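Fold these two proteins, one after the other.
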Amino acid sequence: MRILDCQLHSSMYQHILIPLENSAADKAVLEQIKPLARMMGAKLLLLHVADGWVARNFNQLKLAESEEMKEDRNYLKTVAAGLCKDGFQVESELALGNPPTEIIKVAEQHRCDLIAMAGHGHRLLGDLFHGSTITEVRHNTTIPLLIFRAHKR
């Protein structure tokens, strides 16, 4: 009976979205999600949302890709290649605009069944000044969230 339970649960999360920031927090979420993804046999979708001025106005003004966007795209490719070497099935996507909005949109478009994110542990004033991507995402999606604490700097 226990084996059957494991088999039923192993199909629970088959497509996991991992929003990356191109920061040390990414390492924390990836270290934590890899064992779960391996156990579930899940496909990983890495997402970075470029939100600089060029990224936010890229399509409307038909701008050239900024150096920051190029660096973000290369970062995603590098992280994806490392995960592929570890035996994971990985896709990556660079989105442009408002991070919470794009995270939800991409998760829904790709039919992800889990969003795994790193939290920074801001409290009260920190959330007011820095905003909270996690708060916006959790209030605007029905997709389950798994939040890992990013290591302190």
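Now the second one:
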Amino acid sequence: MTSVQESTDSATDEEPAIEAPDPHRRPRGAMIVNPYSSGMTGKREREIVTTLREHMDLEVRRTERGGHAPKLARELMESGHLDVLISCGGDGTANEILNGMTLGNDTADDRPAFAIVPAGGTNVLARSIGYPNHPVRATAKLAEAIVERRTRRINLATVDERVFMFSAGVGLDGEIVKRMEQRRSGRRPSDMAHLSSIVGYYATQRFALGETMTVTVDGTGEQLRAALVLVGNTTPMTYMGRMPVHFMPDATLEGGLDFMAPSRANAGFAIRNATQAMGLGRKNNRLVSADKMRLRHDVSGFKIECDEPTPVQVDGEFIGERTHITFGLLERCIDLVV
């Protein structure tokens, strides 16, 4: 991990010097807590803070509303001298914090490492890198990883102005997240509520989604007409309870973007694809052919032009309806504590 040290020469405009990590010094960290996350209580927050402070110097900030975390992250970044910035909340909180860290290509050496205490409903990224799906149990492992400075230098994805960690969707996926947010009152809706919403949406479309957007792949210029687009920066893309869902099984945090852009998605396709993604059904044989999925692996970016405004979600958060959408990649932009 690295931290930023203030310049000793106030007469120059040089960037702050980068302090080499000292294995004998207690790590210096800050944690942004979302007290409204599904898995967070006052008692758990106290246990998490106590555990971390046994191993590191820790400053704690709490969000007061949605969209507050990026502001807190920017303030903490400007204060400098951090080895690690910790998100304590769900995937949405982690996403907001990363968007407040002003990331770009090759910025990992100039930023504190990033860590996650999984305190949300799904906790996709934290679970995918090996943490228990329980904030207090995960904190014990996280504290050990911070002290031992165990990190992976990763890439992150972008959609227009937003950074995202593990998944995005245009069309069906965005519509379902939009509907869930409209129904939401406090806690995260259940997996059954999501399934019900998917069935309901398919019913309104007569159980078949046709081509409504054009995807143009960077570098190759390949164009695809698609009914929906799912994008992955790692796998799994999400979880159904304890079961990981691998729509893009070859995606990695160190690689490029993977996406799926089927030209047509009827109810049968959706059921077979979801079954396959959860590792069920036939063994050693695909339930949905690669041709029908139109899966592309390890691309640097692509653009989508929709026939009409279409819902978009990133990391499980609805970001609006758009007609022109650009996906990109930030390479080697952050060190993730694992």
